[in-house]
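Q: A reviewer asked whether we had any structural model of the full assembly, not just the individual parts. We don't, so I'm hoping you can provide one. Inputs are below.
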Amino acid sequence: MKILVCGKRVPMTGGRIVLTEDEQAIETRHLGFTISPHEECGVEEAVRLVEQHGGESVVLTLGPPEAEEQLRDQMALGVDRAIHLVTGGEEWDPQATAAAIVDAIRADEAASGPFDLVVFGNESADSGGYQVGIRVAHALGRPAVTGLKGVAVEDGRVRCEQEVAGGRDVYVVPLPAVVTVKEGLNLPRYPSVPGRMRAKQKPVAATTPDRPQARLRLVRLAVPAGQGKQAEVLGRGPEAAPAVVEVLRGIGVVA
Amino acid sequence: MSTVPRDARAVVIGCGIVGNSLAYHLAREGWRDLVLIDKGPLPNPGGSTGHASNFIFLVDHSKEMTQLTLESTRQYEELGVFTECGGIEVARTEERLEELRRRMASAKAWGVEPVSLVTPAEIKELVPYIDESILLGGFHTPGVGVVDSLRAGTLMREWAVESGALQVSANTEVTGIDVEGGRVRRVHTSRGTVEAETVVIACGVWSPVLARMAGAFVPLTPAVHQMIDVGPVPRFEQSSKAIEYPIVRDMDVFMYERQDGTSLEIGSYAHRTILHDPEEIPSIEEAASSPTELPFTQADFDPQMQDALDLMPEIVGDESVGVKYAINGLISLTPDGMPLLGETPEVKGLWSAAAVWVKEGPGVGKSLAEWMVHGESHIDLHSSDISRFHAHQQTRAHVRARTTEAFPKTYGIIHPAEQWASDRNLRLSPMHARHEALGAVFYEAAGWERPQWFESNAPLVEQYGVEAREAEWDARWWSPIVNAEHLAMRDNAGLFDLSAFAIFDVQGAGALDALQRSVLAQVDVAVGRVIYTPVLSPGGGFRSDLTIMRLAEDRFRVVTGGAHGMADRKLFSDNLPADGSASLVDVTTAWTTIGLWGPRARDILGSVTSDDVSHDGFPFAACRTLELGSQLVLASRISYVGDLGWELYVPIEQGARLWDVLWEAGQPHGLTACGIGVYGTTGRLEKCYRAYGAELESEYTVVEAGMARPTVKEQDFVGKDAHLRHRDEEPAALLCTLTIDDHTSASGVKRYPLGREPITLPDGSPLTDAKGRRSYATSAGAAPSVGKHVLMAYLPPEQAVVGERLAVEYMCERYPVTVEVVGATPLFDPENARIRAADPVPA
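A: Here is a predicted structure for the entire assembly that you could use as a starting point for your response.
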């Protein structure tokens, strides 16, 4: 199998989000960077599928030169190589992003054969457009299934499980296909040290796509009220135990 | 929202290990109405304590650090939060193995036992997942352990609260610190204002910001220390406790590895120096994890992974073991690597308890509490005293320069005489150009560039037949020229640049009383007399030693060493009368000092002045202004090198002229430019002169140092009661001068100890006095005129006997030594005939 996973470099938030003075971006001075949890599950799935079926996994990002860090992070987990569509750091809208990815997929497929599966996160962690995966599938004329919590490949088809109220919808589509996945699909692994070291040597094919005229304009960002760390003191000392048990029951850790 | 109390005996800011511990020990010392505040939540407010690796290695080459660490370990054990696991510092190189032998000596000198050097095979037995084939050996300390510093802090804080002495206010941000009349008055917080005349900044990496609110300096910088956590490690899955295997410090690659439950924690000091601005640390709300756990920068850690993999391939090379956690943790670094403790010199009542790591936290808490309550701590903290810094050393640029230089040496092999390379050439004496022309090799003291020796004197080495040192370590930061300059001075005369002296004038109607209160010796001497005196701590130990010239009835000039000058300035300033009848003026940079000593000194000085410099006209311990041509020179007939001569003081802009005049006049007399190698080591040691910070520390008494005078002055002075008591007691140790009988090592190389090595019985058994103090070489160096290598050491009375045969342990070998002198009698010229010479001394 040949699988492509796409991910986007985003700030690793955890505390209160601070905006730059011009309200055009998130202040990232104190922040690290990552890809979204959805995309992390996509990477894990790709690595597992290649472990099961053999083949090659490729990770792709469209982002600034610094995004190579995220590509290496994914390769440390077992992805074989990377495609970096290098931008000047400006935000690309979903249409432009999809177009650049489609071009890159076509170029790669021309050189080394078609991707059986192209995997996206259900939506990016920052702009949350929910569009790129579908746009890419449409442009390539391949079936797309979104919001997946289960993916299995057998006999040239991919079995897709979509979480819906009260259960799961299951779709089986032929390969090649495009899927967008959600956190919870699997439990992503941690990188091993040898994996990290191998990742430093793995190839990153970098190209600089032309950015088409932007059709969306960012007016300004706003931080929603109530956002940030919210801690509730459940109690002090042993007296807090019953409340903690309640919470654990609530999240299903304790029956 | 709750508010802080309106008044407090003391406010401690910061609930890390230091603040909690300090509040606890202040309560133990009997202080009440204490307030402890932190801007973060409890029990982990988000400072460096919260992410510390929490392990404690016991042995440091610094006695002060080792004592603080041992005291901390004792407290952690008492609190039940210490897990002993042992620790091994491993060597990949021969150079490191030698350094570990030096560690053995420090362990014995400071009384850390047991310790041992272990072979690669023995390391493998202790740490089965290590690849011992890349190691040459290790230094094993079974008493190494890990602590729960957050728990320790919580226990101490809660004890103080339960005792009724302490109120705690978490989630409380300090917004301002008021200072009135030079004294701290109150602290403004997000939960109200608290009046207090004592405020302690125990805020770790934030301390500089808090200090600046009060106009004070806490010169530290936050710096990154990278740590990763890998797991789960199959071998650790059966562990019954958090740590079962010894912690490994992989010294040559600046890393450590320790078990932490089912994980292996890998820490590094090998990456580039990454400094942060204390003002720029993210707030608790903004921080993704905690404010002091910054995002990991993988690229900085990349080169270290191979080193970790090489040492522990079984774990680090295991594909199933993942990197679960990785941070750039913030730690505090200071310009000289030591903590920042004590009352700030800028603001009375404002104390610093900063740049303290977990391994010394509770020891610092206790020591600082003692200092605050009793005026001194049982551990001598002079190397950590925040008042030690000169103005330039408090600047951000200096702090950044020195910490940038020091960080890569965190696990480095630091020679005791090693010099800083960064931020040099800041304080240049007026003779600097002359010194450069003479090929001076400059060492730094208090920012001053001081000639240590002069390369132009190289021909003297052959002339005097001075032997080179064979071992590179012994010869590093040393030159045989030092000994040659020394011998030339003893033969003829030497000229010294002493610009680094710190000089204060204490003047006014109350000056005499203020000085009497400050020092041991009688200050009420005739105008024109100069005295040498120790300065005592309240407990009768040494706080300093210095000279005082009486220039007028109401004017005194205090001259002290540059390194300790700022602490002395604070000490004397603190003793000034409240009524303003005396003042202290720092004239350090108004005056420069040139030393002229040797048997021909009088001839030389006499040739350039028409004033009377004869023995009768200018006796020993006199000071007087002389006319040297158009220069008025304050001359003081004393000597720290034990020879006839003078300290000569002129306005700093005239220093070069004075040097030229003396230099020219000295040529017919064989005058030699001499460096501080002679002044501070060889000249001093063969005269058995004590140095503050070496022989003289607060844990030793005047009697033990052999410096008690026949009588004690009538006037009251700091430490008098204790000193009188010491005079009636049998001393537990006596300061002795020893010489090495045989320098030859097992491999046939002659070795020369550099100081701080253990003095033992001939069989290697350590010597411990009745107060539990080990005997060690307080100083070591050549005594060229005696032809010996000299050590000074406090010995128990049984060994403090002239002729007693003992040993010094150096690099794990013992060298025989003999006690030459008990007490202060000089080894060279015991009658002091030279200093007091009435007539020319025969060369």
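A: Points you may want to mention in the reply: The interface with chain A takes residues 41, 230, 280, 282-289, 294-296, 298-299, 302, 305-306, 308-309, 316-324 of chain B (CB under 8 Å). The CA atoms of residues 84 and 172 of chain B lie 36 Å apart.
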